[in-house]
Design brief:
This protein is of the alpha+beta class. It folds into 3 domains: 8-89, Glucose permease domain IIB (Gyrase A, domain 2), CATH 3.30.1360; 118-276, no CATH class; 279-464, no CATH class. 64% of the residues lie in helices and 6% in strands. It has helices spanning 8-14, 43-48, 70-81, 93-100, 105-118, 122-140, 148-162, 164-175, 180-190, 193-200, 223-242, 245-266, 268-289, 291-308, 315-325, 331-351, 355-369, 374-384, 386-404, 429-454; strands spanning 21-26, 30-35, 54-58, 61-65, 205-208, 211-214. The strands form 2 sheets. The chain has a 4-stranded antiparallel sheet. Strands 5-6 form a two-stranded antiparallel ribbon. Helix 8 packs across helix 11 (223-242). The longest helix is centred in the last third of the chain and has 26 residues, at 429-454. It is globular, with a radius of gyration of 25 Å.
Amino acid sequence: MAKQKIPVQDILAALGGKENVAQAAHCMTRLRVTTKDKSKIDEGALKAVPGVINIVNSGAQTQIVIGPEVANVYAEFIELAGVDEEAAIDENLDIKETLKNKKGGILTLFFETVAAIFNPIVPALAGCGFLSAAISVFMAFGFSSSDPTFNTIIAISMAIFTFLPFLLAASTAKVFKMNQFVALTICAGMMSTTWTGLIAEGIETYTFLGIPFRVIDYSSSVLPIVFAIILASYVERFLNKWIPGALKIIMVPALTVLIATPVALMTVGPLMYWIGEQLAAGVNWLFENGGVISGLVYGGIYSAMVVLGVHHGMVPVLTQMITTQGFNYVSPTSGAANIGQAGAAFGVWLKTKDKNLKGNAASACIAACTGITEPVVYGVNVPLGKPFLFAAIGGACGGAFASIFHLKAFAMGGPSFLSFGMFMGGENPMYNCAMVMAGFVIAFVVAAILTFLFWKPEEAPQSKVSL
């Protein structure tokens, strides 16, 4: 059944008309409108508009919770209101702002920074990771790397993992407001063939100004380059402050490269390389030796990590694991948590009699099954309360299943039913993939059943939610 079109003109009218709209933006689930005079807003009429789930007031901004249809609504809204298009907003913005005003500000800033560095490169990692997984499947069916065409595809898919530090250098430089080309030059210095040549000769240490440092092949590494560029950004900032204008264009980049590269090779490079190895080994150990508990706990808390934005802290670890060992144990479990959210939304769809909520739950459930979880988390389960808890229980059950069988992911990406290719790899790619999908089904079914049995639509605490 086709979903009823949301009457955007009614939303605009309830906001006081186009003359009252100063600015409009949107996130994954909300239309965020700044009005000139909030007293002209008719909240009763606004809540009565078909497709509007809830209204949240945040300072001068009125946030209209719509769900996954918000992008289409926004496009029509700004055309009717005659305002400029704004960049999409992070769904976690309001929660992060609240956290910044509390003692967790530094921790919140850390996770935001990690997200800002890694999120832009995840699509490239996910795409090439999917190609690598597909290659494993084709090779299982008899394709040979001796075939020139097939070998060319292999080379293309693996290049990003070898030269990942360059992507990280550019992304980190952008976040820390450093010249990206200077950052790439420093990355090139750390990945010079000089070091791989020394390693091939069996040389493990080298010296700079008589100071010894460990010789490391930084291809495929993650943390060393990120921290090297962070260090370089402060060097560049210092030099820009003290070097006269006429000399900046030559001396700042020259001295930044000359100072930051050797210092990184001697200090943060080896240190961060070791930390990255230990983090990856630690996560492996937990999932290999923690049994059912590791997946049960991680699958249960992962959705809460997403709401708080702290799941971004796992991205460097997962990237390190994929690039160095070719797999990780975490994605099958986090994927189960995501699908658990879809299952809870499905339970809401089965139980509710509200046509608007039923439509939003259905579309959000489908989106979550394909790896887009923001609409189901922020637009359905968190506002309704109990479904979010039942989704976490479903994720815990699916995660426990994944950890019992030591299931793996062989590529980066948003784990879902649609991204099954990232679970194809290893000695038995079809078995691993099928078992991961079984874990997802467990998470979905458990969450859906719990929601259908124990969630009561009349108890939905929508008015208390202000994400």
